[in-house]
Specification:
The protein has 266 residues and is an alpha+beta fold. Helices cover 30% and strands 24% of the residues.
Length: 266
């Protein structure tokens, strides 16, 4: 081969070794890009699930808190206010259930509709909250309409409840002295002296994530220790304590109870 001046020029390409080195470097660069993409995708998936869990947890806590604060409501606490809790419909087990009641009226601040929007004949609303063990959905079963349970929260692994009890039953002062589960309340006769509720929700993601480090030692969910299986699923625990003012007022404001306390303190 000759150049434009007529001089001879030797044409020379890449050797096999040079091609192999170039290919190796290219593969290394491509591997780095792929690893970076996979890592970014995993981080995005984790942040997406954490965001969803956080949003669902805040909603559930606010919703249950609102329901519990209505428990025991009535226009006349001494005449028509129902018991704040229906412990016959509540339960204590692997996951708990709690049933609250209040007196609602059409057009009032607290109306006569249950948690599923059904009108309750007579106005005494009973809402029962529990977790469906098959679907892991948080359910609410109201006593209006056909009483068919409806889900309002997904991916709930555990729901635990403790009841704040005033153990001074001879002269209740509206102060919670201890927390116990539903079975203990019935066994020890504190059914009418529950003034607050502690509840805990363990929420989980909807799919495994490879970069999740599972929490060692499990989760202390109120009075129970729960150790989940090694499934690479992200979880978050939400806990709240809710005071029930209507339940306190119904007990401590009774004239008969006040007179009894005065006589005991003479």
């Amino acid at each position: 081969m000759r150049n434009f001046k007529g001089h001879s020029v030797n044409a020379k390409g890449f050797s096999t070794i040079e091609l192999m080195i170039a290919s190796t470097l290219g593969l290394l660069l491509l591997s780095g890009v792929v690893s970076l993409f996979i890592g970014s995708n995993r981080n995005y998936s984790m942040q997406e699930q954490l965001s969803t869990i956080q949003e669902n947890g805040r909603f559930a806590v606010m919703y249950l808190e609102d329901q519990l604060q209505k428990a025991g409501w009535g226009d006349d606490y001494l005449a028509d206010a129902p018991a704040a809790l229906d412990l016959t419909l509540s339960s204590d087990g692997a996951t708990d259930a709690i049933a609250i009641s209040f007196l609602g009226k059409a057009g009032a601040v607290i109306d006569d509709r249950d948690c599923n929007g059904e009108i309750v004949a007579g106005g005494t609303v009973i809402n029962r909250f529990y977790v469906d063990g098959t679907t892991n959905q948080m359910m609410c079963q109201g006593n209006g309409g056909a009483g068919i349970p409806q889900p309002f929260l997904s991916n709930v692994e555990k729901f635990e409840v403790l009841y704040g009890v005033d153990t001074d039953t001879n002269c209740p002062d509206g102060v919670v002295n201890t927390y116990m589960n539903r079975d203990a309340i019935l066994a020890q006769g504190y059914k009418g002296y529950v003034y607050s509720i502690k509840f805990a929700l363990l929420l989980k993601g909807d799919r495994p994530l490879q970069n999740i480090v599972q929490k060692s030692g499990g989760y202390q969910i109120l009075d129970k220790l729960y150790i989940p299986q090694e499934d690479k699923i992200v979880r978050r625990l939400f806990q709240q304590t809710v005071f029930m003012p209507n339940a306190v007022f119904a007990t401590s404001s009774s004239p008969d109870r006040i007179m009894q306390c005065m006589m005991n303190n003479l």
